[in-house]
């Protein structure tokens, strides 16, 4: 069981809660902070003080005063009217992550909700009741209003949740079956639930976890390509990378050298040629730059997952209630746009290595790695597929954050589009994993021709793992199935992941 405080949640803890389904508990201090901020809200309502979001309308309606007897209806109307999400639903894992992040934010004690609201969120998480949340409809400022409204619907016994068969089910029936009592939202509670960046941040964290593993996997797959092509290992000499000064570049070079240690298939400078093409020679420089991006993105996510992102925020036990813009998703929008480009580059350089593996003018291997060139096409169209995915990534990599559009009668005149950035980043990650799966299949086949027994001991281990699920190409077959098999095996969030790779060398 993991204790939530609102201040100390880590990515590793979040993965244990969301992927491993660990339960959560709430710290006593955090619950006291929640209670104190709630008392401040109740004082504002009982004394008819005018404070945005507590007894006023929302957005352009912020100047409309709401009477005390209408405050509960205001919150109910807010949730229902803002539940405008459309399109396919987020995966259940994203939904669970959103709930954990929303609960953690409320526990900071700046939001003014009652303990009953945080308790039902905790109960939903621990009993694995996950809202069905459409992916599209968020502008990423004023928070992820539409997605979070669909989450909030479940707390009041409305909306849909994932049933036992993973199909949408009416929440009121599932809550009843799980003995969970819906809440009636009081002043400010609806706004506190939907003002936030939890959709883009949830997707962003899961993107980061997949991208990090992808970056590690790209290295041993590139090392197999090096062996298949007789690449020159001198390019990874530590002095070369120390001379430039980027620690991530040095680390990639060190890991590449370690993967290739003892290999009889790589060459030295001048053995066959003086230097390799950039897609081989510049692996540390290109992959290292992606690692720099990953470090930046992780830093922003770790801040955001413990941030207070609703509005207004309550300080000094109600002495100060401040309206601001912490719900604006710009930090995560830029991070996701940056991650999109960085992951797309892993695909770009991988596809160039695939071309070198299948093009007989660029290697000493059978044309297209075919067992019977001409009669059998071998990996010819696998390179086509990789090229298609890389091209699609270039479209998805266009930054969403530069495409602000005004809303709410121009009151909300600059928005982040951070959730779009996070969703597109997820698409790029899936595409890139498939490109790397194709490189893996081609590199393995090249090593088959060169002699797997000459491979390094670490790469022989990887060769055995993949060959256990994808056989050598002895004749043409439906390679789509092989690509998907390796793609699933490389996914750290997939049940079919073929064991943890010993990446931290």
Describe the secondary structure blueprint for this structure.
Elements: E1 2-4, H1 11-18, E2 24-26, H2 28-46, H3 71-82, E3 86-89, H4 92-106, H5 115-126, E4 134-136, H6 145-155, E5 160-162, E6 168-170, H7 171-177, H8 189-194, H9 198-229, H10 238-242, H11 247-259, H12 278-281, H13 283-304, E7 313-315, E8 320-322, H14 330-358, H15 380-396, H16 418-450, H17 457-467, H18 479-490
Structure commentary:
The protein has helices at residues 11-18, 28-46, 71-82, 92-106, 115-126, 145-155, 171-177, 189-194, 198-229, 238-242, 247-259, 278-281, 283-304, 330-358, 380-396, 418-450, 457-467, 479-490, and strands at residues 2-4, 24-26, 86-89, 134-136, 160-162, 168-170, 313-315, 320-322. Strands 1-2 form a two-stranded parallel ribbon. The chain folds into two domains: 2-196, Fumarase/aspartase (N-terminal domain) (Fumarase C, Chain B, domain 1), CATH 1.10.275; 203-311 and 335-490, Fumarase/aspartase (Central domain) (Fumarase C, Chain A, domain 2). It has 505 residues and is mainly alpha-helical. The longest helix has 33 residues, at 418-450. The protein has 18 helices and eight strands. Helix 1 links the parallel strand 1 and strand 2 (24-26). The model is unreliable at 498-505 (pLDDT under 50). This is Histidine ammonia-lyase. Pathway: Amino-acid degradation; L-histidine degradation into L-glutamate; N-formimidoyl-L-glutamate from L-histidine: step 1/3. It is found in: Cytoplasm. Its main location: cytoplasm. It catalyses: L-histidine = trans-urocanate + NH4(+).
């Amino acid at each position: 069981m993991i204790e939530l405080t609102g201040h100390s949640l880590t990515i590793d803890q979040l993965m244990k809660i969301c992927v491993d389904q660990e339960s959560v508990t709430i710290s006593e201090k955090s619950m006291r902070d929640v209670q104190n901020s709630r008392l401040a809200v109740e004082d504002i309502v009982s004394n008819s003080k005018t404070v945005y979001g507590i007894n006023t309308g929302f957005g352009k309606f912020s100047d409309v005063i709401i009477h005390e007897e209408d405050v509960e209806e205001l919150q109910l109307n807010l949730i229902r009217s803002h539940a405008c999400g459309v399109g396919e639903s987020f995966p259940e894992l994203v939904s669970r992550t959103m709930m954990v992040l929303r609960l953690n934010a409320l526990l900071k004690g700046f939001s003014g909700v009652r303990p009953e609201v945080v308790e039902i969120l905790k109960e939903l998480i621990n009993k694995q009741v996950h809202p069905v949340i459409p992916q599209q409809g968020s502008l990423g400022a004023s928070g992820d209003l539409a997605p979070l409204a669909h989450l909030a619907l479940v707390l009041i016994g409305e909306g849909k949740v994932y049933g036992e068969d993973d199909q949408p089910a009416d929440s009121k029936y599932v809550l009843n079956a799980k003995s969970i009592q819906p809440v009636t939202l009081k002043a400010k509670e609806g706004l506190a639930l939907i003002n936030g960046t939890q959709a883009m941040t949830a997707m962003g964290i899961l993107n980061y976890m997949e991208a990090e593993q992808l970056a590690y996997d790209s290295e041993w797959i590139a090392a197999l390509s090096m062996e298949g092509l007789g690449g020159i290992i001198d390019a990874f000499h530590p002095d070369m990378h120390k001379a430039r000064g980027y620690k991530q570049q040095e680390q990639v070079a060190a890991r590449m050298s370690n993967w290739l240690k003892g290999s009889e298939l790589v060459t030295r400078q001048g053995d066959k040629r003086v230097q390799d093409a950039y897609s081989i020679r510049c692996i540390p420089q290109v992959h290292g730059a992606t690692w720099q991006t990953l470090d930046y993105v992780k830093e922003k996510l770790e801040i955001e997952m413990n941030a207070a992102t609703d509005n207004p925020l309550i300080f000094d036990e109600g002495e100060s209630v401040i309206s601001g813009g912490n719900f604006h998703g710009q930090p995560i929008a830029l991070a996701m746009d940056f991650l999109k480009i960085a992951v797309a580059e892993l695909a770009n350089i991988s596809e160039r290595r695939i071309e070198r593996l299948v093009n007989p003018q660029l290697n000493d291997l059978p044309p297209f790695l075919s067992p019977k060139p001409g009669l059998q096409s071998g990996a010819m169209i696998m390179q086509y597929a990789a090229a298609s995915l890389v091209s699609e990534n270039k479209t998805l990599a266009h930054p969403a954050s530069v495409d602000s559009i005004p809303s709410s009668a121009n009151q909300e005149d600059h928005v982040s589009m951070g959730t779009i950035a996070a969703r597109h980043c997820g698409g790029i990650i899936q595409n890139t994993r498939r490109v790397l799966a194709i490189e893996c299949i081609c590199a393995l086949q090249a090593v088959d021709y060169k002699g797997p027994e000459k491979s390094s001991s670490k790469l022989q281990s990887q060769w055995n793992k993949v060959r256990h699920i994808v056989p050598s190409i002895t004749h043409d077959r439906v390679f789509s199935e092989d690509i998907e098999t390796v793609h699933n095996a490389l996914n750290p969030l997939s049940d079919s992941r073929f064991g943890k790779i010993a990446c931290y060398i």
